[in-house]
Amino acid sequence: xxxxxxxxxAPIADDQNSLTAGERGPILLQDWQLLEKLAHFxxxxxxxxxVHAKGSGAYGTFTLTKSxxxxxxxxxxxxxxxxxxxxxxxxxxxxxMGSSDAVRDPRGFAVKFYTREGNHDVxxxxxxxxxxxxxxxxxxxxxxxxxxxxxxxKDPEAMWDFWSLNxxxxxxxxxxxxxxxIPKDYRHMNGYGSHTFALWNKQGERFWVKWHFKTEQGxxxxxxxxxxxxxxxxxxxxxxxxxxxxxxxDFPKWRVYLQxxxxxQAENYKVNPFDLTKVWPHxxxxxxxxxxxxxxxxxxxxxxxVEQVALSPSNLVPGIDASPDKMLQAxxxxxxxxxxxxxxxxxxxxxxxxxxxxRVENYQRGGAMAGTRCPYSxxxxxxxxxxxxxxxxxxxxxxxxxAAIKAPPLKISGDADYYDHREGADDYSQAGNLYRIMSEExxxxxxxxxxxxxxxxxxxxxxxxxxxxxxxxxxxGQRIEILVNQLKEK
Length: 490
Ligand code: NDP
What we know:
Layout: H1 32-42, E1 55-64, E2 83-92, E3 107-115, E4 118-125, H2 138-145, H3 156-165, H4 170-177, E5 191-192, E6 197-200, E7 206-215, H5 224-233, H6 237-247, E8 253-262, E9 288-298, H7 302-307, E10 320-321, H8 326-342, H9 429-437, H10 440-454, H11 459-472, H12 474-489
Antiparallel strand pairs: 1-2, 1-9, 2-3, 3-4, 5-7, 6-7, 6-10, 7-8, 8-9
The structure holds NADPH dihydro-nicotinamide-adenine-dinucleotide phosphate (NDP).
């Protein structure tokens, strides 16, 4: 029999009764075991993520099927057949921790590759684009997706008002309101790195790339009615689906592709390759298949792993780098910042976050919870193998840099200014392209979904939105207008 203990390991004699002065008497302050239990209970939560609070996750394997040695020195992308352990966290975006999995909302699709040269994270969504191209509007935009500060209710007026004044969102709004806006669950949707990233090879040549993860389970979606029914019955249906599929050995898979653009071509390409509201059309940059990602191991501890996993697009490895995408640049700051706030300065020491295939060697010391030993590392991650030396350079054979993995220089130019990214921007063509490739059934679902929500907004907001939809495609705008008018007459 395992003996119950306190957190200092002392065996507990009685966990059913508190220590009281007499049978009917009050509890004694010296019942430290009770106090510890209550105090720890009060601290069971960490701040939930402001976005992507509700999540599911699992471990798995990425198998490389095409060597990328022509494009990158990244160690895990060299040898065909090479396998890399991964952790994938799925999420909804706007809801709180206890909210339904069956909502119309983008889904987070965030992969951590535990490579031999450190962890590489691709932190994207189930959509290839985003609502914004400049991060200055991100907090404002998220406020419109969250609860009204006075009523604490979701607010369609705020949401449509913001979009009507920011037509850069039209492409993502079209995806969100389409049939793919409510994936059936996490297994039946694609993932995208969304941002443009850099790869660079040993010749010092740079390539811009976009990541695509295409579901092998097939795309399956829910209608608004189906989603409402599921929400009423089981608000965790996607979590349940993922855990059960993996538990019974039905491992979900995604084929992994890259779009690859040589650095030079970015200068003249018709689409700004660093604009997160745009895709690169496949006919210009076809998908190159590079591997397969499989999820095959459920977590042992939801809180320790899914809640505390700290994914960040700043987790980059030699041969892989950021791009000038403004939204990416902001996320390089804000993701680690969020994790420091949620978890603490040493968040990367937790077993789910620390490298599994290499070990950390640096001169960072101290901070809350310093000293955690990563079970995957032979000598622990903090302090490093040389706990006695906390400065560099030193003459004590401490860890030193490796100049060979320095990224090639990136040419940048221009005067520092607040450039208006809305001026001359084409916010409509790609949203229109998406509308035009949809089947009649998809178009009909799309316009119905939009009209149902937009009709709840005020007249000026509706007027501005209809003008935007018409600019995407006149048929798109016209059909929404007819439906909105019908709904308003009711
Ligand atoms: P293609 O015909 O070559 O590709 C169309 C893409 O659209 C496919 O990847 C398809 O995904 C995806 N798609 C189909 N229906 C929907 C939907 N309801 N919501 C989101 N994606 C959908 O055309 P282009 O490359 O020229 O792109 C045309 C439009 O397709 C774009 O404006 C963009 O909105 C959308 N798209 C483009 C992507 C890209 O990287 N070029 C990626 C995803 C979407 P699947 O094959 O999985 O069915």
